[in-house]
């Protein structure tokens, strides 16, 4: 009997490995236990494209006594199929809540997969995020991701968040306590940073990235993003000492190893913009100098495409502060 059980166990593991979510040469993706009852699937550190099918964020999973809580399930319906399948490999418990960190569709379009299977699931987001998503952000991101990935079949109609939260609000789900932090402006003006009290984990959304760059849109603030990370490090504005810090993109880790690289990058960008403005230069005139000051970041994904845009954004913020 023991031999039969062993063979069955090996067969099951082998079967699961055969059915792992594989994205071509990008490799296999699954939820990994990173802290107590917290699991994270770290997506490819790259821009959305046809190779990754639009999957490049970090879906997270918290297991409670009676169910599962998901944070940012992914960027389209086809991605969501695979994320949901990987969730079910961790546990067969039902998904009882979802949190969306901000309005950009690469983080929440896969809500639809979970809502189809669990029609009564609560999907939490900042009230203003829900308003913006329904107004124009969802359609804007649908267009962006569609042109970059061609992988949006089934994504519409959107599964918008259906439960709003506010700054400093505490949400308790099946014994798991979450505290919302909404900065005035950071990566966007719709962000929530989510503290999972039970495990001492902080989910920062796209206010933190590592090994890749994303865009700062018209609602964002580089100065604001810097302030957020400085407050987290200094334990100001209610932030505490956490065991794990989870970025929206890139590897999770301890405080300084995870936050310092992106924080220092933004500080170099701001310093370059300030120097250019002080000397009556345009941002493009100092771009080469700033790029040379960023040698530690030359291997980060899409630095060529994003750094100049970030510098222009920083310049406009420096200029506005002078008025």
From TrEMBL:
Residues 56-249 form the Metallo-beta-lactamase domain. SMART domains: Lactamase_B. GO terms for molecular function: hydrolase activity; metal ion binding. This is Beta-lactamase-like protein. The lineage of its organism: Bacteria, Pseudomonadati, Campylobacterota, Epsilonproteobacteria, Campylobacterales. It comes from Sulfurimonas denitrificans (strain ATCC 33889 / DSM 1251). InterPro entries: MBL_Glyoxalase_II, Metallo-B-lactamas, RibonucZ/Hydroxyglut_hydro. Its cofactor is Zn(2+). Keywords: Hydrolase, Metal-binding, Signal, Zinc. Residues 1-20 form the signal peptide. It comes from the Bacteria. It holds the Pfam family Lactamase_B. The keyword ATP-binding does not apply.
């Amino acid at each position: 009997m023991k031999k039969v059980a062993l063979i069955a166990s090996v067969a099951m593991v082998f079967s699961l490995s055969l059915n792992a979510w594989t994205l071509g040469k990008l490799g296999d993706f699954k939820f990994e236990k990173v802290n107590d009852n917290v699991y994270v699937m770290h997506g490819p550190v790259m821009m959305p494209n046809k190779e990754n099918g639009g999957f490049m964020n970090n879906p997270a999973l918290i297991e409670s006594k009676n169910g599962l809580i998901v944070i940012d399930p992914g960027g389209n319906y086809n991605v969501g199929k695979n994320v949901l399948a990987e969730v079910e490999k961790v546990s067969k418990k039902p998904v009882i809540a979802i949190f969306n960190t901000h309005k950009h569709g690469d983080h929440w379009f896969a809500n639809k997969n979970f809502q189809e299977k669990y029609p009564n699931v609560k999907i939490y987001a900042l009230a203003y995020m829900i308003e913006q998503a329904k107004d124009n952000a969802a359609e804007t991101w649908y267009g962006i991701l569609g042109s970059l990935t061609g992988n949006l079949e089934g994504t519409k109609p959107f599964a918008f968040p259906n439960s709003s939260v506010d700054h400093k609000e505490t949400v308790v789900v099946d014994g798991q306590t979450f505290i919302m932090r909404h900065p005035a402006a950071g990566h966007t003006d719709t962000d929530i940073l989510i503290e999972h009290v039970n495990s001492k984990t902080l989910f920062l959304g796209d206010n933190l990235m590592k090994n890749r760059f994303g865009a700062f849109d018209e609602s964002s603030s580089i100065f604001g993003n810097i302030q957020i990370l400085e407050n987290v490090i200094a334990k100001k504005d209610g932030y505490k000492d956490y065991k794990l810090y989870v970025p929206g993109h890139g590897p999770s880790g301890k405080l300084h190893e995870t936050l310092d690289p992106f924080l220092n990058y933004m500080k170099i960008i701001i310093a370059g913009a300030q120097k250019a403005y002080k000397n009556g230069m345009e941002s493009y005139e100092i771009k080469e100098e700033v790029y040379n000051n960023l040698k530690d970041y030359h291997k980060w994904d899409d630095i060529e495409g994003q750094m100049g845009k970030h510098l222009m954004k920083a310049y406009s913020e420096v200029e506005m502060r002078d008025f």
